[in-house]
Amino acid sequence: MKDHKIISSCDILPSWKRVKKTLLLHHYGLRSDSSKYNYYSCRGIYVGKKHLWLQKHIKTIVVVLGLLGCLFLIDSFFISFFEFENPQPTTSSNNSSAFLQVKDSNIHMKQSPIQMYDRLLNMAGSALAEKEFKQEPSNLWAEPYQQASLWKPCADKNVKHNPGNIVKSNGYISVSANGGLNQQRVAICNAVAVASLLNATLVMPKFLYSNVWKDPSQFGDIYQEDYFMNILKDDIRIVKELPPHMKSKDSNAVGSQITDADLPKEATSADYIKIVLPILLKNGFVHFLGYGNRLGFDPLPFDIQRLRCKCNFHALKFTQKIQQAGSLLIKRIRKYSTPPSMLDTQLLGKFIEKKESHEYARGTTKYLALHLRFEIDMVAYSLCEFGGGENERKELQAYRESHFPLLLQRLKNSTFISAADLRKLGRCPLTPEEAGLVLAGLGFKRSTYIYLASSQIYGGTSRMNPFIRLYPNVITKENLLTPTELAPFKNFSSQLAALDFIACASADVFAMTDSGSQLSSLVSGLRTYYGSGHAPTLRPNKKRLSSILSEDGTIGWNNFKGRIKKMIQEAQKLGTKGYGKSIYRHPRCQECMCKLH
User: Fold this and answer.
1) DSSP structural state of residue 368
2) Cβ-proximal residues to 544 (8 Å cutoff; 6+ apart), any chain
3) Average pLDDT of 496-515?
4) Three-state DSSP string of 20-34
5) What pairs with residue 44 in β-bridges?
6) Beta bridge partners of 98
7) What is the distance between the alpha carbons of residues 281 and 173, in angstroms, rounded to a whole number?
8) Which has the higher per-residue pLDDT, 41 or 216?
9) DSSP code of residue 175
10) For residues 190 and 196, what is the distance between their CA atoms, to the nearest angstrom?
11) Interaxial angle between packed helices 16-27 and 118-131, expressed in degrees from 0 to 180 and rounded to the nearest 10
12) Tens digits of per-residue pLDDT, 123-132?
């Protein structure tokens, strides 16, 4: 032992592979405290022959390190080169901070980061660092079933006879739709179907002002009125206003007002004929107040169902102001022009940039759109817990007392279900952290651009931090469009939501965290209808995901990946609309689409 020296150092380099992994981890700012990557330790190391080996190969090691440095410089160059064409650009290193600066003024904030799955997050971060320079599986960005391309749009074909042949209308139907953009869209198409069913003339739908949405927008501020009337002119009569002699009547006073209390939630055509038609024939008009989801999907006559499809997928085009901003948004996400798809044509109209085929850029940026539902009202109403401890429990309870007194009253008379059991049952909204783990499990690279469509994220930066650690390239309409470009939409939440709708529907992949939301339902349906089998949608099963995540302390990364992929693939299985299912979300049915043989 006397001819050996003892040195204390952390600079011994074990091997080429370990150096590469360690540098990757360091480059991406990931933790390396797991045993798998803990290659360095500051302890006494005996050096004899090993010291001589190090002296002999020091030049080789320096050359290798130099090559690695060049590799990272090239990587940095490409990141800088491919930055967004944005008057207010953000680099890949500060995308997350730009996102948080935009959102901090609009979201409920917490003081410290909150995460629930430390071990899985560390494994996900390590896995993403390892695969960053490897080829990404091509099936990530594709529909898993080729048969999807056999279904083609055809709801605009042969819907009904020309109403000019109808001798007389039974009267006028006016509608005041409630809710936000997506609830109103459903109400419009339901009203079109009811007008046809009752042989009535539809007055251009109105939108109720909501204290929640605080948006005074009307139909013509969001959709093209003349286009809507023209597309449906061979199916129903539509007028912009009630005749003067009808306007003077008080619908409530004369008994022509219909509210949600008068109709079942999933009312059938028989319900409308029994309840509404007699009032329409007696008074000449009916006013549906706060109209929304008050028409079921089955049983319904074939022509009426097809007309509802035609309304949703063909008649509702956003105004040119929204289309123009949406086109600019998509261009900046993708960075270069791409050949327009059927989806692009439907969403953006004349604002698609048309070029010769050879002029379109190759290798344009693919992006994933994520509809993240984690607003405080949804979080509080769920009665779940999200790792925030006693402060979170008190805060959410106070919110319930202020906003959901009826919920608390019902809870007093119902069987208690613990927060842990609610999570097992799949009743809890997915956190940003859980959404990030799903994407990592599927194999999306860390460099993936993710368009975030969301409202006010509960927890703000503390909740988004785990997600951004995995996926720093988070983009939103607020950091893609300038304040001047967004100014026309300020204080119009439904019009801003329309921009999110466009970005989600046009995405290469659309991922949702809540399959029950109207935006997710309408966007996924539009992608099915116009996507030609090339517009995949990711729908996590919250109950199954909860079971997988509950094994955070023991599950291996390969096992986690396999179960996540299986969960998503099973939700993507190709199928036609089931009985009672929404045609807005499941348009693969004879009333909406045609299947090629």
Assistant:
1) E
2) 426, 563, 567
3) 96
4) HHHHHHHHCCCCCCC
5) 8
6) none
7) 11
8) 216
9) E
10) 10
11) 110
12) 999 999 998 8
Q: What are phi and psi of 536, to 5 degrees?
A: -65, 145
196's enclosing H/E stretch is helix 181-197
C-alpha R_g of the chain: 28
- 8 Å CB contact between 192 and 160: no
Q: Which residues does 420 contact at the CB level (< 8 Å), separation at least 6?
A: 385
220 Cβ contact partners less than 8 Å away, ≥ 6 residues apart: 204, 319
Cβ contact 374:457 at 8 Å: yes
The residue type of 287 is: H
Q: Are 373 and 452 in contact (CB under 8 A)?
A: no
Asked if residues 310 and 232 have their Cβ atoms less than 8 Å apart, the reply is yes
Contact 456, 376 (CB under 8 A): yes
- Of the two residues 573 and 415, the one the predictor is more confident about is 415
Tokens 């607020």 appear where?
Answer: 478
User: From the centroid of its chain, how far is CA 374?
Assistant: 12
Tokens of 398: 């106070």
Find out whether 184 and 221 touch, Cβ atoms under 8 Å. no
Report helix, strand or coil for 371.
Answer: strand
CB distance 437 to 117 below 8 Å: yes
Contacts 24+ apart (CB under 8 A), 207-212: 207/176, 207/177, 207/178, 207/494, 208/176, 208/177, 208/178, 208/290, 210/178, 210/179, 210/180, 212/180
The three-class DSSP label of residue 416 is coil
- Token pair in block for residue 332: 């900046």
Measured distance CA(594)–CA(592) in Å, rounded? 7
Query: Phi then psi for 200, rounded to 5 degrees?
Result: -115, 165
Taking residue 264's Cβ as centre, other Cβ atoms within 10 Å add up to 12
Of 387, 574, 547, 396, which Cα lies nearest the Cα of 465?
Answer: 387
Alpha carbon separation from 312 to 153, 308, 417, 508 (Å, rounded): 12, 6, 39, 22
Sign of CA dihedral 254, 258, 263, 267: positive
**What tens digit of pLDDT does each residue of 168-209 get?**
899 999 999 999 999 999 999 999 999 999 999 999 999 999
In 223-285, which ranges are continuous DSSP H helix? 225-231, 244-247, 269-275, 277-283
Question: Do residues 547 and 529 lie in contact, with contact meaning Cβ atoms separated by under 8 Å?
Answer: no
Using left for φ > 0, alpha for ψ between -120 and 50, and beta otherwise, residue 214 falls in left
Q: What is the DSSP letter of 578?
A: P
Number of other CB atoms surrounding residue 466 within 10 Å: 25
Structure tokens at 485: 């470009």
